[in-house]
Amino acid sequence: MNFDDTPQEAEFRAIARAWIGANAPKQYEEDLRKSSLGRTVLKNANILEVAKAWQKKKADAGWACLHWPKEYGGRGSSPIERVIWSQEEGPFGQLSRMFIIGHGMCGPTMMAFAREEHKRTYLPPLASGEKVWCQLFSEPAGGSDVAGLRTRAEKDGDDWVINGQKIWTSGAHYSDYGILLTRTDPTVPKHKGLTMFFLDMKSPGVEVRPIKQASGASDFNEVYFTNVRIPDHQRLGEVGDGWNVSLTTLMNERSAIGAAVSTGFHELFEYCSSLMLDDGPAIEDRAVRSKLANWAVKASGLKYTSMRAISALSKGERPGPENSIGKLVAGSMIQDVATYALDLQGASGVVSGEDAELAGRFQAMLLRAPGTRVEGGTDEIMRNIIAERVLGLPGDIRVDKDVPFNKIPTKGR
Amino acid sequence: MNFDFSDDQKQLRDQARKFLAEKCSPKAVRVVLDGKAPYDKDLWKGLAEMGFLGVAIPEEFGGAGAGHLELCVIAEEMGRANAPVPFSSTVYLAAEALLIAGSEAQKKKWLPAIASGEAIGTLALFEGKGNPAPKNVKLTAANGVLNGIKKPVADGAIADFAVVAARNGSSGRDSDISLFLVDLKAGGVEIKSLTNLDPTRGQAEITFKDAKAEPLGAAGEGWSILTQVLDRAAVLCAFEQVGGSDRALEMGRDYALDRIAFGRQIGSFQAIKHMLADMYVSATLARSNSYYGAWALSTNAAELPEAAAAARISATQAFQHCAKNNIQVHGGMGFTWEFDCHMYYRRANAMALGLGSLSYWEDQLIDRMRKKNAA
Ligand SMILES: Cc1cc2nc3c(=O)[nH]c(=O)nc-3n(C[C@H](O)[C@H](O)[C@H](O)COP(=O)(O)OP(=O)(O)OC[C@H]3O[C@@H](n4cnc5c(N)ncnc54)[C@H](O)[C@@H]3O)c2cc1C
Prior knowledge:
The complex is a heterodimer of chains A (413) and B (375). Chain A is α+β, with helices and mostly antiparallel strands and 413 residues long. Helices cover 43% and strands 14% of the residues of chain A.
C-alpha cells in the first residue's frame, strides 16, 4: 500500500506539471475554478472553442486520451499516469467534459469493433477534439430498458436505411459523428434484434432538435432519422449482435462517468469555511460540522475507491461493475449538498444566477443534479447492477425475455 | 502509487481468516455472549501462538515486527469473526500507547507479555458520560498514586494493566493531563463488571484508591499522546468494523438467496436487492477510507489525523448500516437470539462508542481539515 509516487511516477508528474504550466489557457483558470456542476461560465468566450483548442494543443504534444494507444491518437499511458495527469490538469480538466462521451464511450467501442482502417481514420481526430462524437442509444421507448428501442435499420444494397427517433442525446447539436443502436429484426426477442453503427451526423435525413432541460440549459437533443443511409462497412459488430456491442459502451460509460462525477463537497466546505450564520461562523456550528463530516467521508471514500479500482486496472484487471458506485453515491450527494447550501442561505437561497450568493453556484448545482441521477443509468439501475453482478443476487423477473419484440405491449394503460 | 495490500499481506489475511473460521465459530462466540466465560481464553492463546497479537510489535520486544499494515489485515479478520477477546483494548490501545510513549523498561516489561498473550491491557479514559476531552478527566494523580473512578473501561475486568489518563494540574490547559501505567492486580484498585450492549467484549468500572502508578511518557504530555493513540486505534478499529460490515452483508446476501417468499427468493425483490446494494456501497466506501488510513498509519504520514477520523466515521457508519439491515433482510429470524445477526448489531453499536462517539470524530475531522486548508 503506497499513496506516494514511485520515482517514475514523480518524474511523469514533473513533466506533466511543467507542460501544463507552460501551455494551459490560464486566462480561464479563475472561471473554471469557480465552476461547479451545472455552472461553467467562461467570460467572453465560447466554452466549446476553448475546450477544442486546449484538446488540440494537448494532442499535438502527445497528452490527449492518455490511455488510448498511440496509433489512435493517445499516449499509451498507464492508469496511474492518467490519475496523475488529471491531478495536475486540475480545473482545466473540466474542459474535457465536452468530450467525455466520445473519449469515454464511442472511442473504446470503435476500438473494440470498428475495422482497422476506420480506427485509423476516425480515432485521432476524436482524440484531438477536432471531431466531437455523441451516443445515440436512448429513445422515448427505451432508456433504462435500452433494448426496448424502436429505431429501424433496413438493408438496402450495400447500405442500411435508418428511420426513427432518439432522445436525450447529449451534444448532438455540435457532434460530427455518433454511434447508433438500431433494431434490425423486430420479430425476435428484443435483445437479439439489435445492430450497432457509427454515422456522420451531417448525413442527409438527420435532424437534431435541442431540448430545453429542467435546468433551463440545452445540452441534450432529440434526433430524428428519415431515410438516413449508412454504408454497411460502418456497422460495428455483427448484424443482430448490437446488444453485446452496446454492453462494451455501457461498461465504459460507467467507468468514464463514475470517475468524473463531482460531489459538491469541496464547494460546500469552502463555502462553510467563510460563511457567517446568525450565531457565528458556520464551520463552528455543531450541526453544520456534522453534515460536512458525513459528506467529507463520502467524498474521500469515492476518491479512494476509484484509486483502488485504478490499482486493480494497473494489475491487468478489467473495470468491473464496482464502478457503478461513483455515480450512485455522488448523484444524490450533490443534490443533497446543493439543497443544504441553499438552506444555509435562508430565504435568499431562492435567488439564482448572477444575482445570487457565489453567482448562483449552488442554485445551478441543485437544478442540474437530478440529471446526474438519471444519465448513464438511473440510481435504481445502478443498484440492480451492484446487487446482481457484484453480490450475485437473482436478476429481475423479465416478462418480455422470450417474447418477439413486436409482441411486447407498448403502453402501461 | 498502489492502493492495495501486497500479496504477502493478502496471504496473511487468508491465514487469519482460516484460523478464525476454525477457532472462532459463532458457537464459540456464544459461550462468551451467554456469560459462560469472560472471554475466549483458548482463542487468545491461539492468537498469540499464531503471532497475531504481536504482529506490529518490534522483534526486540517479543513481537513479529511485521508492521501496521499487517495488523490492519488481522484486525479486519477479527471483526469479521466477531472475536470475543480483548484484542482492541490490548493491541490497539495499550500496546500502541506503550510503543508511542513507553520507556525502554516499560516496553520490555509489557510488550513481550502482550505478544505472548500473558498480559491483557486496556486504556482507562472515560469517566461516565462525555467524549474524549481534557475537561472530562477528573481522576487525579499526585505523589505517585491515582484517585478516582473510570468507566466504562473496555475489558477492564480481565485486564492485567491499564493506561490511565489522569489530571495532575489545574491550569485549564491540555498539559494538566498525564498518562500512567497501573498494575491492576496490585492494591488500591477495585473492579466491577458492567452489563453492556456487547457482552462478547466486557466493560468495567474501575475505582482507584491511592493506587500506585508510574508515569507513561512525559508529565503534561498525556493529552497529545492520547490523541495519537486514539488516531491509531481509530484506523485499526475501522478495519474491524470493515470486517464486520462485510460479514453482515454476506450473511444478508446468503439469506436473501436461501429464503423463499411469494414463491421467489427474497433476493429477487428489488427492495431487498437495493438494500443489499446500499450495504455494499457503505462497506466499500468505509474500506477505501480505511485503506488510506492504513497507509497513513503505517508510514506515520502527516495525513494520519485526518485520515484516521475519516476512516473512523465511515467505518462506524458502514458497520451500523450493514448490521441493522442484515437483521431486516432476515425478517423475524433476524430478531431471534438464536440467529447471529444481533451479535454484529451489538458489536457495531458498541464499537461506535468505544473511542468516542461519532460527534467527537466529526469535530476532529472538520478541525483537521480546516487546519490543513489554512496551512
Ligand atoms: C442529462 C442527461 C444526458 C443524457 N445523455 C444521453 C446521451 O448522450 N445518449 C443517450 O443515449 N442517452 C442519454 N441520456 C438518457 C439516459 O441514459 C436515460 O434517460 C436513462 O437511462 C433513463 O431512461 P429513461 O429516461 O427512459 O427513464 P425510464 O427508464 O423510463 O425510468 C423511469 C423510472 O423508472 C425506473 N426504472 C426503470 N427500469 C427500472 C428497473 N428495471 N428497476 C427499477 N427501476 C426502474 C428508473 O430508475 C426511473 O426512476 C441522458 C439523460 C440525461 C438526464
